């Protein structure tokens, strides 16, 4: 793992020899995201997310601060591990109710020029053709500022909602997702020639049909016979995020992800996982530094450390401890209501097959910061910040912590979680970013008109990098795969 190259590409060197820190705002179209209970706080506007002006105002704020992207989580079912019921999830508004995150994107894009948008969508519930159409449309409407956070779904309640009794087994989900991505590359990269859109009024021709390829995919999980119905968008393939660092998730990420969303309470827990994915990517011929890692991070910022601590004490008054336990129980598959408060949590406590394996690791892996995890300790952490570290202090204190994580965990940036919204994001824009700029690790301004991918890799890199697997599917080099044959049928034929 020590053979990994120095940072490349160079787009994050700000010209002063220092590496740029990338910041995304982390939100969800729900009342209680990672800090359930704050809807009771008079300064919090989480309960207004069903109004379009919440999203428009947030986009303007993030644009003003030069935030890289608004990263939107999503979920397809309630958390029902805690006490074996979804009731507490509903009662505490622990990521319930949830509206569709794609709907407000166009409105936000219309009031911004630089802000990118990363939307979570699952490979488990809809045909690739439908997702390809939706993301091509969004990439057009945002002028190339769209990203996709690829997830595989695991909640039993979500599968029941679409008529399936049980979720797909963990590693099988990633095998299915791998094929899903390859179908999408065929649609986004292979179907339309770069010159297919050929307006010729004299011939009454808008598109040359001879330059649009029909994709014939006959795979293990998906079959498709169609031309992509949307003309190539500015990026063709949206910028690809992925969440999950299990063994299967790491292999998938090393193959497909351009950026990876990671979560841990300690940089020492994250660093080996990040090193593993970079090493896997290098083995596939990819520049390991081209994969950007964003860690969850929740700041509570005020002008001084003392004022920030006072703010933290005030925020705790509104926190829903049960709501936090509902979320962590769902993520880990451990019903924390059944474990004695001071008993150390282990992987053996996870009685459910369906869970987020990487998050189970986070809550059962010891670190210097947390030598042992108990339900009492989880309860203290879960209600504010949920997934990752909470940093309380002045802009200088929080900036120091960000720099520590970059150095010790080898992350490239952060998904900034909020405690109250838009309060936390206002603190980041008005207090933290000026401090980062003073240190020379955050850009003063952004060039307008860049795509989501160009903002990461540099101007001119609108489409997938040449070392990315999706580039093998570009129109000029694409060769259709042979139809999938079941192993036993293949053996008979041989």
Automatic annotation (TrEMBL):
<dbReference type="InterPro" id="IPR011251">
    <property type="entry name" value="Luciferase-like_dom"/>
</dbReference>
<protein>
    <submittedName>
        <fullName>Luciferase-like domain-containing protein</fullName>
    </submittedName>
</protein>
<dbReference type="InterPro" id="IPR036661">
    <property type="entry name" value="Luciferase-like_sf"/>
</dbReference>
<feature type="domain" description="Luciferase-like">
    <location>
        <begin position="40"/>
        <end position="407"/>
    </location>
</feature>
<dbReference type="InterPro" id="IPR016215">
    <property type="entry name" value="NTA_MOA"/>
</dbReference>
<dbReference type="Pfam" id="PF00296">
    <property type="entry name" value="Bac_luciferase"/>
</dbReference>
<dbReference type="GO" id="GO:0016705">
    <property type="term" value="F:oxidoreductase activity, acting on paired donors, with incorporation or reduction of molecular oxygen"/>
</dbReference>
<comment type="similarity">
    <text>Belongs to the NtaA/SnaA/DszA monooxygenase family.</text>
</comment>
<dbReference type="InterPro" id="IPR051260">
    <property type="entry name" value="Diverse_substr_monoxygenases"/>
</dbReference>
<dbReference type="GO" id="GO:0004497">
    <property type="term" value="F:monooxygenase activity"/>
</dbReference>
